[in-house]
């Protein structure tokens, strides 16, 4: 019996020992797996803050310090997520926009009264693009203004990968800039996750589209130690050693180590009893659990009793004791399991509370519904968006909240039924019946009661759509303006030949000839065409600018005085002056032309040209939303209003009124350039136009101009008087002046022959060259014996400026006159830098060429160009 008893006791003790060890291992593996899953969920919660940052960064391009600070503090990210110690927006800045970007950052005084006067993008150095950390919370001075495209670091590869893929991109373990001067400390090990920011908010489907629409990146940074400690229970830390390693980090286990619960132990830990992987953005973390602290310890008394049992009674007593202790341990395990269940219940309640907080405080409208559209719950944003309380929304069917006529509805419902989730655009309906365009995302899931439910996130994009439409309209008008400028350039070449030959023909024909009357008509038509071209150039914003700070009311008064003389007697003109002086930097002639065009358009829109036109000048204060729609800065602006009692316009006509040559007037009543010129003038003056009109209710056109401070009075402000145009019979009025040797350069044969005849008739010796290269060859053949070179600017090969520079070097005593079919401020500036004081418009060659030649001959030829701008 003793041998049998001892054998039975030994067998039972051995079995009990291994059973407890296996149970302990199973429990620890389960707890380690739960820790890893909780860690992955916690990281996912951190990354869930990135969509909000992306939406904010897209809607608030280049936000101010105060706007970004208010957004981050309103979300309380640092309070909700332990270890989260950085939220930032980095903007993509091209090299040619760097100066403006730095100036805008220095001038941002929304938080600091002095702004950021020392702001510089660092490290310095030329790059095609910069990815600048502009907004960070909390403050990180070493990173403020840092360029993530720094060639001395490896950040650019991660940022470019985020821009190219559209996915979240995480870094390996690192220390943030604020911690880099501190000693190495595992508590400072951090991870930064970046997400690309695209124009329009949505991620383009192709890499080329993603790179073309990239605006920058947003990101969050968090320390790993408080993150893991938040999910690692203290009792597990005593039983196991938890290590987290980023396998994709730099080579070497130490470089990839993110967390070690027992860093003071030997580096060679015991073999892990559990290992798993979790996903963090685009990286994989390996989590391993190693036993320590008696994790597998069984009951040593069982082995002692088996080895030193002295009899059957002792063996039976040991067996009884072992069974009793096993029972107590089982009860203890049941108690631990009950505590775990209670803890899981508490975690579930905490998770539900956090979900409720996100649900209630989300900026987006969130609905919880059944698949048939019946509303189960709605947050405050949804109630505000639809204009009803929760009870009202719960009582309404889908047809009262969604526009059933929208063809996109059926497609979205089918896609959600097929895949369980969907996102897209949809036209929604408020409770009052008004419609709005919305972005909708929805998914289907099984509720706690086992029934299917859906969640819907709705965002009103009406204002964004309006801004997109306005941008499209501006781009279309800019394209038309570019085309109009090119047409005007070519048209001026033809006008130069037409008007020049008409002038020569008038000199050849006797004054009493009947042909003189016809030639006068041709010249009159040519002059009208020349005015038309000038209006085209004004629309395309390629006409030279002569802006100065001046009061607006005198310009309005002068224009209205002229307008009264042209209005029919059946039209009343009412002018409301500004009660306070308003100053702006404007071209007075263009502003008066703008008013004349608007008033003419207004009285011609009156029924039977009978009614009233009202003109008012006032100071308007634009709110931020209104200013954003108009593309202006918020604040005070000078406002010119022109109202009429005419027929009004529908949406189709309003969308096209600024297009050149578009008109609703009958043939012969207009060219369609009036409002196109108005648009060009306003754009040239950095202003904006707003049109309010409905059929049958008249029209109001409002022009907004930036205000300027009134300058101190100066004696030399008066403009020089215009030079009178010479008579047609003596073009230029210079036939009695000094004759010269002239080289005329133009690739247009008709214009060149016209100028040749004009100059020869004035007694000059003229040679003609068809290109810049031919002109230089001709100048070399004469040994530099040329008094004046008249050259066209726009020629194939060597341009007119190239000819002028070559002439200055080869023959310093030769004067140069530049002509062009399109004279711009930039061309005049470049000509002055080469010592050419003036650029002649080609369409005015008849009136100004001979005079310009005589002025050039009277200029000292010392070979030194005057100072730029002189």
Automatic annotation (TrEMBL):
Residue stretches making up the SAP domain: 819-853
Record's catalysed reaction(s): ATP + protein L-histidine = ADP + protein N-phospho-L-histidine
Residues where 4-aspartylphosphate is found: 792
Start and end residues of each Histidine kinase domain: 486-709
Keyword Nucleotide-binding: yes
Organism of derivation: Pseudaquabacterium pictum
NCBIfam families: sensory_box
EC number assigned by the record: 2.7.13.3
UniProt xrefs under InterPro entries: CHASE_dom, CHASE_sf, CheY-like_superfamily, HATPase_C_sf, HATPase_dom, His_kinase_dom, HisK_dim/P_dom, HisK_dim/P_sf
Domain PAS: 351-387
Protein name stated in the entry: histidine kinase
GO MF annotation: an example: ATP binding
Taxonomic lineage: Bacteria, Pseudomonadati, Pseudomonadota, Betaproteobacteria, Burkholderiales
């Amino acid at each position: 019996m003793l041998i049998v008893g001892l054998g039975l006791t030994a067998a039972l003790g051995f079995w009990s020992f291994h059973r407890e060890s296996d149970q302990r291992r199973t429990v620890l593996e389960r707890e380690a797996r739960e820790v890893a899953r909780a860690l992955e969920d916690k990281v996912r919660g951190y990354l869930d803050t990135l969509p909000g940052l992306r939406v904010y960064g897209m809607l608030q391009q280049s936000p101010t310090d105060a706007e970004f600070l208010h957004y981050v503090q309103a979300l309380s990210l640092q309070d909700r997520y332990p270890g989260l110690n950085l939220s930032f927006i980095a903007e993509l800045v091209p090299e040619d926009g760097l100066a403006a970007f730095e100036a805008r950052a220095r001038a941002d005084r929304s938080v600091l009264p002095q702004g950021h006067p020392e702001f510089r993008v660092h490290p310095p150095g030329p790059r095609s693009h910069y990815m600048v950390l502009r907004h960070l919370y909390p403050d990180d001075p070493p990173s403020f203004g840092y360029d993530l495209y720094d060639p001395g670091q490896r950040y650019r590869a991660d940022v470019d990968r985020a821009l190219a893929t559209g996915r979240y991109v995480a870094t390996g373990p690192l220390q943030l800039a604020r911690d880099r001067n501190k000693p190495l400390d595992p508590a400072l090990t951090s991870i930064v996750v970046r997400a690309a920011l695209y124009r329009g908010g949505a991620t383009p489907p192709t890499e080329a589209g993603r790179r073309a629409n990239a605006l920058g990146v947003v990101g969050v940074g968090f320390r790993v130690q408080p993150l893991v400690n938040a999910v690692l229970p203290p009792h597990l830390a005593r039983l196991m050693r938890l290590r987290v390693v980023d396998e994709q980090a730099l080579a070497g286990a130490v470089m990839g180590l993110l967390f070690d619960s027992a860093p003071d132990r030997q580096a060679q830990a015991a073999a892990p009893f559990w290992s798993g992987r979790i996903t963090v953005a685009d990286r994989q973390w390996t989590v391993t659990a190693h036993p320590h602290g008696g994790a597998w310890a069984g009951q040593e008394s069982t082995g002692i009793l088996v080895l030193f049992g002295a009899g059957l009674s002792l063996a039976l007593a040991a067996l009884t004791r072992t069974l009793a202790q096993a029972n107590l341990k089982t009860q203890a395990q049941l108690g631990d399991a009950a505590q775990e269940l209670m803890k899981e219940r508490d975690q579930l309640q905490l998770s539900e509370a956090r979900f409720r907080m996100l649900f209630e405080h989300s900026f987006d409208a969130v609905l919880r519904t059944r698949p048939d559209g019946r509303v189960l719950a709605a947050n405050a944003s949804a109630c505000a968006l639809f204009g009803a309380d929760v009870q009202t929304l719960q009582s309404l069917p889908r047809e009262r909240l969604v526009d059933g006529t929208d063809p996109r509805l059926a497609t979205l419902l089918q896609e959600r039924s097929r895949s369980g989730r969907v996102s897209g655009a949809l036209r929604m309906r408020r409770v009052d019946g008004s419609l709005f365009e919305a972005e909708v995302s929805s998914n289907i899931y099984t509720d706690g009661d086992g029934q299917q439910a859906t969640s819907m996130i709705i965002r009103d994009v009406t204002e964004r759509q309006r801004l997109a439409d306005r941008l499209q309209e501006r781009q279309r008008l800019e394209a038309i303006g570019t085309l109009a400028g090119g047409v005007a350039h070519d048209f001026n070449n033809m006008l130069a030949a037409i008007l020049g030959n008409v002038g020569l023909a008038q000199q050849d024909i006797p004054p009493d000839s009947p042909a003189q009357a016809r030639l006068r008509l041709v010249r009159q038509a040519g002059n009208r065409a020349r005015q038309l071209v000038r209006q085209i150039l004004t629309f395309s914003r390629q006409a030279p600018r002569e802006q100065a700070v001046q009061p607006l009311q005198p310009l309005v008064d002068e224009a209205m005085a002229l307008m009264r003389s042209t209005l029919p007697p059946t039209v009343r003109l009412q002018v409301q002056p500004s009660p306070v002086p308003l100053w702006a930097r404007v071209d007075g002639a263009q502003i008066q032309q703008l008013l004349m065009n608007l008033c003419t358009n207004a009285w011609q829109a009156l029924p039977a040209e009978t009614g009233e036109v009202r003109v008012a000048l006032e100071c308007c204060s634009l709110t931020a939303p209104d200013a954003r729609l108009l593309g202006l800065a918020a604040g005070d602006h000078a406002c010119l209003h022109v109202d009429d009692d005419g027929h009004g316009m529908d949406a189709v006509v309003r969308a096209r009124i600024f297009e050149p040559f578009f008109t609703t007037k009958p043939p012969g009543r207009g060219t369609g350039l009036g409002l196109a010129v108005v648009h060009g003038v306003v754009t040239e003056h950095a202003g904006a136009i707003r049109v309010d009109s409905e059929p049958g209710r008249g029209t109001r056109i409002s022009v907004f101009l930036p205000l300027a401070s009134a300058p101190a009075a100066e004696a030399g402000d008066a403009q020089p008087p215009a030079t009178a145009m010479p008579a047609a019979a003596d073009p230029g009025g210079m036939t009695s002046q000094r004759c010269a040797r002239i080289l005329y350069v133009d690739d247009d044969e008709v214009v060149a022959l016209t100028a040749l005849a004009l100059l020869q008739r004035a007694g000059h010796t003229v040679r003609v060259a068809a290109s810049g290269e031919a002109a230089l060859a001709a100048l070399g053949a004469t040994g530099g014996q040329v008094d004046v070179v008249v050259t066209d600017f726009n020629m194939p090969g060597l341009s007119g400026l190239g000819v002028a520079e070559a002439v200055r070097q080869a023959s310093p005593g030769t004067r140069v006159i530049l002509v062009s079919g399109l004279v711009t401020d930039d061309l005049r500036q470049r000509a002055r830098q080469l010592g050419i004081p003036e650029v002649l418009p080609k369409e005015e060659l008849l009136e100004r060429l001979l005079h310009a030649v005589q002025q050039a001959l009277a200029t000292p030829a010392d070979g030194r160009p005057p100072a730029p701008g002189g």
